[in-house]
Amino acid sequence: MAKSRSVDPEADFAPLPLTVQHERFEPASSLLTRLAARNGAPSVYQFCADLAFPVDPLFRGEPLAIAQLAQLAGCDASTLARVSICHLGHSRFRLRDEIAMTHSLQRTRIRICPVCLRREVPSAEEAWRMPRRLPWKFTSVRSCADHGCLLVTLLPEKFTKDGRDFAAQVRKHFGWVLSQGIVPAETGSFERYLLRRILNGRGDAWLDRFELNIAARLCEVLGLLLKKGPEATLSGHDEHDWGQYGEAGYQVLKGGELGFLACLQELAEQHAEKRFFGRIYGPLVTWLQGRGLGDEVEPLRALMRREIFARFSIRKGVQVFGVPSEGIAARNEALVPSIEGFSLKEQALLVRRALAYRQEDGTVVAKSFVTETMLSAFGRELGEQTEADEDPSEADELSVVAYLIADASGYLRITDKTVRYLVHAGILSLASSNNEARSGAQQISLKSLEAFRQRFMSLGELADHTQSPAGALSTRLRNAGVATLPMLPDLSRIYWRADLVMSGLLAEREAKISRFTL
Which of 68, 153, 180, 467 yields a CA-CA distance of 20 to 30 A from 408? Predict the structure, then answer.
């Protein structure tokens, strides 16, 4: 270990000339690293060891350490504290009255503007001339407002502490940054809003009611939803994409709460056939359900929760962002599809299958969870329906090979409740009692089970066949628009076998088997 050299501050210490702009916008941690580089220290840690200066408390943003640095650098302590970030613990940070999280800050990776570097630093030895602007530390700020170009992220370091030494990193990667091309990027209204808020504090806009990290991420995720649709995921997007999403989301949110709620209403009307709020608001719901968010997201969750409870009919007990539903039906009758195109006999069958109900005046209305897609699947099922009654000549044989409810559910890979529903709907048929079965036990004929499997395949059977998780298969089929047999929402999912063949899932599995058996 290298021995620390003693330094006489009056003889050896070189002060750092600061402009008014640098003093206003440069955090304390960056100022300390530039002081170290200005005095020829190989690193900020060596410099602080020589001066017996508390480096770790300064990087945590402790007020006493910031005051000591201000005295050392000859700048105003209150101004330096105003632009310095304080670590609160548990991945939480504070900038004045703003709260930020680890994912909203660049803590160990350094981003700089290549044009600023060219204009302010003559050579690598004078890297101390380059101040780190406060907005560059925020993930959602991706461009330099002064020069209209994307920020460049320096190469990662092996050790986290090395990545915190700003001036040393600029000196080390000086040539690499100069070799990078300048990518033009217009600083839109979204980033200008963030810059004003980071440098000057909150305003009076509705978006300013939320903490900085929540406001910035809300703009980006809402923009992702508007640009890519409800099936979009939060991963797989580059910095340029997130910049566009943030701009699109801010154009809506600058209209305040009314603009945000109007956007949610428009999305619900555009995707009314999906009926479930998670499938309509997609990435927005996924983000709000994340466990890494703090209490500062609760006001936004409460607003979304009120909108969801008012617009969607949700079963009692189902939790929406941690609060269970009271089971109150929302006033969304206008979104319920019409069944006037079905005959009276077909409408009666919808009522029998609990997909519709009969009002006091005798008219039949579809239930709130029924969509146009489900009614189309119901019409398809009627067109393909075949006689499922038993042939009397085969009664003796069927009495031997009939399946109990529990055995039938295992045979089809569905729940017992689903089997009973299929029997009640007339899709599966009861057989004569088996002498070996207990008295009164219902049995499903093998003939109807085989006929069912020729036409349909359950999600459970498909998962066994493809050796894939059922949840991933369900999402993949839903995104592909593969229809399910119209049933109650709490029953097992069942698909047409022909649709699964066309989707390629069954063919993929058969190809895998053939490769292993050859």
Answer: 467
Q: Do residues 220 and 140 touch, judged by C-beta distance below 8 A?
A: yes
The pLDDT value given to residue 428: 85
Token representation of residue 406: 């529990």
* Contact status, residue 387 vs residue 427, Cβ threshold 8 Å: no
In angstroms, the CA 246 to CA 139 distance is 12
The two three-digit tokens of residue 114, written as one number: 């290549």
> Closest Cα partner for 153 from 212, 201, 186, 106?
106
Q: Which of 252, 230, 231, 232 is nearest to 241 (CA)?
A: 232
* Structure confidence at residue 82 (pLDDT): 81
* Residues of the chain with confidence (pLDDT) below 70: 1-25, 272-275, 327-336, 385-401, 432-441, 507-518
- 60 CB-near residues (< 8 Å, 6+ apart): 86, 87
The residues that bridge with 366 in the sheet, in sequence order, are: 356
Query: Which amino acid belongs to residue 308?
Result: I
Q: Which residue has the tokens 């999280």?
A: 101
Look up the pTM and report it: 0.62
